[in-house]
Specification:
Pfam families: VWA_CoxE. By secondary structure, the protein is of the alpha/beta class. The chain has helices at residues 2-15, 21-34, 39-50, 54-72, 95-102, 105-120, 130-141, 146-154, 157-195, 199-202, 215-242, 247-254, 287-299, 328-337, 350-360, 386-395, 417-420, 433-446, and strands spanning 244-245, 266-267, 275-281, 306-312, 316-318, 369-374, 398-403, 426-429. It folds into 2 domains: 2-195, no CATH class; 214-446, Rossmann fold (3-Layer(aba) Sandwich).
Length: 447
């Protein structure tokens, strides 16, 4: 069963499914219990173990059908009347030759699966490598020894000659089948790799004019960024909890053990999680950046003490509850379409947003709060309400403004960025996945 599941799990990971070691082990136990005879039951059980969202379930179904179909079509059944009596097969013949002579399709298929199992692990083969894949697979199956078995059979008289001809014919058929299988195999992995991009390929691409067809690719990259940040923050928090070694206290305590530092003493630090208030412009020109930023930030909520999120266009609404227990892709779509959010989508009004935040949510922005604004500051020639923004900045610990536009465009046309910038602790460009990762790490770590 492992010869089937190991390459399949690698295929799922290559295509973008997040499959942990524990989930892969659950899938293996399930498959061992069910077996491969009940294809529909196996598909449903593996899907329950490996797919965790509607998008992943749809992708899993495509991968399962393609992968299982690839193996089912591997070898044709033996021709009728083209059999060989197993009792006459020499004992020193190789397993592959013996399986071919017996017409044991299951045994040949097992050898093929064993060979391709090693070829499926990372890095998966590229489509241009299918010739090398065929050669390596045949080598692993022991095909190079078939010619020697043919020569040995030829020395056994008339019956041996017939067996040798049958073995040659079936070996040639096997090579053709393996070539076809290798082409399907490499194409399947190449397509999976193409659908799951390397985040570095997308890191510097601007998010402001993102085609809708590319959204799944960017969401996959966001998931990888979140996993990377979780690992990084988890290690730092573990180190912070442990603290640094207190040499003097350790030496004092060692006096009770004849000077042997049996119990080291650490200076433990209190973990200071940041309090964040995030205000995002979700008008059409900025909404992609805002949606990706909020997805990354809320995916790391356990590293933040308090996180309040507001969105605005013509009015300001709080959307913190939108991120409670929902699928990230569904949240992203809702943000883009405004589903369930009482936003008035019209002319962007920064002044109205800041006045409402200052008056209605005055207690939200406090001296321990980091206020983050994401938007291009283009106010359509309206009142920018600089006084309200100044009062907010005075109450907050610091104010960070993230602008998707290049710095050369700040203050041009209807941009009020130069009016707001003096009251910001930090203002910087933010319009790519690389910028988002850097900013989230800075916010969560530094608070």
């Amino acid at each position: 069963m492992s010869t089937f599941l190991i390459p399949f799990v690698h295929l799922c990971r290559t295509a973008g499914l997040s499959v942990s070691v524990a989930e892969a082990l659950d899938a293996h136990r399930t498959a061992v219990v069910l077996g491969v005879e009940d294809r529909a039951g196996l598909k449903a059980a593996l899907g329950a173990c490996l797919a965790k969202s509607p998008r992943e379930a749809e992708l899993f179904e495509k991968l399962f059908e393609a992968f299982v179909g690839m193996y089912e079509a591997l070898l044709p059944q033996a021709e009728e009347g083209d059999q060989w009596n197993p009792l006459t097969i020499p004992e020193d013949i190789t397993p592959l030759s013996a399986a071919l002579l017996k017409g044991d399709r299951a045994a040949v298929l097992a050898l093929v699966m064993d060979a391709f199992q090693e070829l499926a692990v990372a890095p998966p083969p590229a489509f241009t490598q299918r010739g090398a894949v065929v050669f390596q697979a045949l080598q692993r199956m022991g095909a190079q020894a078939v010619a020697g078995d043919v020569n040995s059979l030829m020395t056994l008289g008339a019956g041996g000659a017939r067996a040798a001809q049958m073995l040659e014919r079936r070996a040639a058929s096997l090579v053709r089948e393996v070539k076809t299988f290798a082409e399907t195999f490499t194409r399947l992995y190449a397509r999976a790799r193409w659908n799951q991009p390397d985040p570095s390929d997308l890191a510097d691409q601007p998010l402001t004019a993102l085609p809708e067809a590319d959204i799944p690719r960017y969401l996959a990259a966001v998931r990888r960024i979140v996993r990377r940040l979780r690992t990084r923050f988890g290690r730092r928090m573990k180190k912070t909890r442990r603290g640094r070694l207190d040499l003097k206290a350790t030496l004092r305590r060692s006096a009770a053990f004849d000077g042997v530092p049996v119990e080291p003493v650490f200076r433990r630090k209190k973990i200071r999680k940041p309090q964040l208030v995030v205000v995002c412009d979700v008008s059409r020109s900025v909404q992609n950046v805002a949606a990706f930023f909020l997805l990354v930030l809320h995916s790391l909520h356990e590293y933040v003490k308090r996180l309040r999120t507001f969105a605005f266009c013509s009015n300001l609404v709080e959307i913190t509850s939108l991120f409670d227990g929902s699928d990230p892709e569904a949240i992203f779509r809702r943000l883009l379409r405004g589903e369930g959010i009482p936003l008035q989508i019209g002319l962007t009004d920064y002044g109205a947003a800041f006045r409402e935040l200052d008056a209605r949510y005055a207690g939200v922005v406090q001296h321990s709060t980091t206020l983050v604004i994401l938007g291009d500051a283009r106010n359509n020639r309206g009142d920018p309400a600089v006084d309200a923004f100044r009062r907010l900045s005075q109450r907050a610990s610091r104010v960070i403004w993230l602008n998707p536009e290049p710095r050369t465009l700040w203050g041009t046309g209807d941009s009020e960025m130069e009016s707001y910038a003096p009251f910001c602790s930090l203002s910087r460009v933010c319009n790519s996945l690389k910028h988002l990762e850097e900013l989230v790490e800075e916010l969560v770590v530094d608070g």
